[in-house]
Design a protein that fits this description.
The structure is a single chain. The chain is mostly beta strands. It has one domain: Beta Barrel (Porin), CATH 2.40.160.100. Helices cover 5% and strands 56% of the residues. It has 3 helices and 22 strands. The strands form 2 sheets. It has an 18-stranded antiparallel β-barrel. The protein has a two-stranded antiparallel ribbon with strand order 18-19. It holds the Pfam family Alginate_exp. InterPro entries: Alginate_export_dom, Alginate_Permeability_Chnl. Keywords: Signal. This is Alginate export family protein.
């Protein structure tokens, strides 16, 4: 069952205080690990979200510093605390708490290990990050200054080989502008089970299966606003053999949205072929998504898929669309002049899966006036990116995206635009 937010907040604060140990307890500590990372990002955006967002031109810097302490007690227990400071410069308007959070607790948990049947079982309680599979449905949300975290409990049981099982019950943390004021949401509860890295009979292929539950108050879709209680069951097949690699995932959702039934689905793929014998070792890739939308408003059934807590940005660094009511096709090519240097070029076409449903802007906002239009074509984007692992601790990245709206958005003011970002990430 979902946990009460007051209890989760109290446990998180207690864990943070517990790391300030008195002198007589210091001899219990076998190892104290300290570290962190610093990220600096420059972003320039013209007509963001196909011109449907404001301001129309935004040039800004994002500054992020994370510091952590990992205290080990023997070989079975640990306490982990991570602080985050996210600030902005040049932001047009008032930045959200995910971008401007002066100083707060990103993670603060206690963890202990048991070995039933000789297999490690780790139990964790407190504030923590979650990421499963390909991060299509549960991710840390790396794009903004403040990564996504949850308050709650989690158990991870490592089984034979790399196979492992996770069970969790948490509430998402809502970053707020200010210092030490982030709180877990009393309007959302998230729970589930995820079985990862299951061996299959096919060489080079492994599988994940999962169940994810969500309870969300006052959820909004083109069909209106209501209480959302949604259940997701899904599976992922992934692997590599020779020059080919693949990653396929499908999920089905059911539950209730107010008095309506939820019936939604998604199918996603990311496959490629690496021609290692050719210059620059090109990988020819193809990404594709089919994500359901609502076929008829007010019919007692909601067909819009909810991607829950996905990686953001999702389709490109420009973050032009949320993964709801979408058909997506993205052929791309990646070249590697050196082992530490990569470049990627891709084209991305976007269509509405259901014409009657709306276009959803990030994170999951139905854009007024986009439901029921004659065209499904949302638009397209060209993506160019590069990454350089300068050292083991320093990474540099760049992304450029040019996007153009289709007929489904031009009628509500959609405009062509551009996005550029430059990132330097240092770990220490």
């Amino acid at each position: 069952m979902p946990l009460r937010p007051q209890a989760l907040q109290a446990a998180t604060m207690a864990l943070a205080a517990a790391t300030c140990l008195p002198a007589h307890a210091q001899d219990l500590i076998d190892r104290l690990g300290l570290g962190g990372d610093f990220r600096e990002v420059y972003e320039s955006s013209r007509h963001p979200v196909f011109g449907l967002d404001r301001p129309s031109q935004d040039d800004r810097f994002l500054h992020r510093l994370q510091l952590h302490s990992d205290i080990r007690f023997g070989t079975t227990s640990r306490a982990y605390v991570e602080l985050v400071s996210g600030r902005t410069s040049g932001w047009g308007g008032a930045p959200a708490g995910t971008q401007d959070d002066s100083l707060d607790i990103l993670q603060a948990f206690a963890e202990t290990r048991f070995t039933p049947g000789g297999q490690p079982l780790d139990l964790r309680a407190g504030r923590q990050e979650l990421s499963f599979g390909s991060s299509r449905l549960v991710s840390v949300r790396e794009g903004p200054n403040v990564r996504r975290s949850f308050d709650g409990v989690r158990g991870t049981w490592t089984l034979a080989g790399p196979m492992r099982a996770d069970v969790f019950a948490v509430r998402p943390v809502a970053p707020r502008v200010g210092s030490f004021n982030d709180r877990s949401s009393d309007a959302e509860a998230f729970w589930g089970a995820y079985l990862a890295d299951i061996p299959t009979a096919l060489s080079g292929m492994r599988a994940d299966i999962y169940y994810l539950g969500l309870n969300r108050a006052n959820a909004g879709f083109a069909d209106g606003r209501a209480q959302e209680r949604r259940h997701t069951v899904g599976a992922r097949l992934f692997g590599k053999t020779g020059a080919a690699d693949w990653n396929f995932e499908g999920a089905w959702q059911f539950g209730r949205f107010g008095t309506a039934d939820i019936r939604a689905w998604t199918l996603s793929s990311d496959s490629g072929y690496t021609a290692a014998a050719l210059p620059l070792r090109p990988r020819f890739g193809l990404k594709a998504d089919a994500i359901s939308g609502d076929r008829r408003a007010g019919d007692g059934r909601l067909g819009t898929f909810n991607a829950l807590y996905p990686k953001l940005p999702y389709f490109s660094e420009a973050n032009v669309a949320a993964p709801a009511n979408l058909l997506d096709l993205q052929p791309n090519i990646t070249v590697s002049p050196r082992s530490d240097l990569q470049f990627n070029l891709g084209w991305n076409g976007l269509w509405k899966q259901a014409r009657a449903d709306a276009f959803y802007a990030p994170p999951l906002v139905a854009v007024a006036g986009t439901a029921g239009l004659g065209s499904r074509y949302i638009g397209q984007q060209w993506v160019v990116s590069g990454s350089w692992a300068a050292t083991k601790r320093v990474a540099v990245g760049a992304n450029y995206v040019h996007f153009q709206p289709g007929a489904a958005l031009r009628g509500v003011g959609g405009r062509a635009g551009d996005f550029l970002n430059l990132t330097v990430h240092v770990k220490f």
